[in-house]
Amino acid sequence: MQTKRIEKILKPLSSKRRLDILKVLKEEGLLPVWEIAEKIKLSIKATSKHLLELYHVNLVDFEKHGQESHYYITPQKSRLIKYIISLL
């Protein structure tokens, strides 16, 4: 059902912190977790949990760079994210 799919994507967007993360990624592009955490003034652990929520609904993806995970907005969702962030 289409409604369930939409709800699955929108639910993680109900968090101010996750919206802050998406805004930072939209503006900066590929970033390591620690830098995202620094920019939104949140602990690395809490930031990682929020990123995981966004990852599970395919709004962000990551690349491994050594021990670090660097996150970015999933290309197929970037238009949706840009629109949502423009409403903020």
Can you walk through the features of this model?
- The protein is α+β, with helices and mostly antiparallel strands and 88 residues long.
- It is 59% helix and 16% strand.
- It is built from 5 helices and 3 strands.
- It has helices spanning 2-10, 16-28, 33-40, 44-56, 78-86; strands at 31-32, 60-65, 68-73.
- A 3-stranded antiparallel beta sheet has the order 1-3-2.
- The chain is globular and about 40 Å long.
- The N and C termini lie far apart (29 Å).
- The model has no long low-confidence stretch (mean pLDDT 89).
Question: What keyword list fits this structure?
Answer:
single chain; 88 residues; alpha+beta; three-stranded antiparallel beta sheet; 59% helix; 16% strand; globular
TL;DR of this structure?
With 88 residues, the chain is of the alpha+beta class. 59% of the residues lie in helices and 16% in strands.
Layout of secondary structure:
Layout: H1 2-10, H2 16-28, E1 31-32, H3 33-40, H4 44-56, E2 60-65, E3 68-73, H5 78-86
Antiparallel strand pairs: 1-3, 2-3
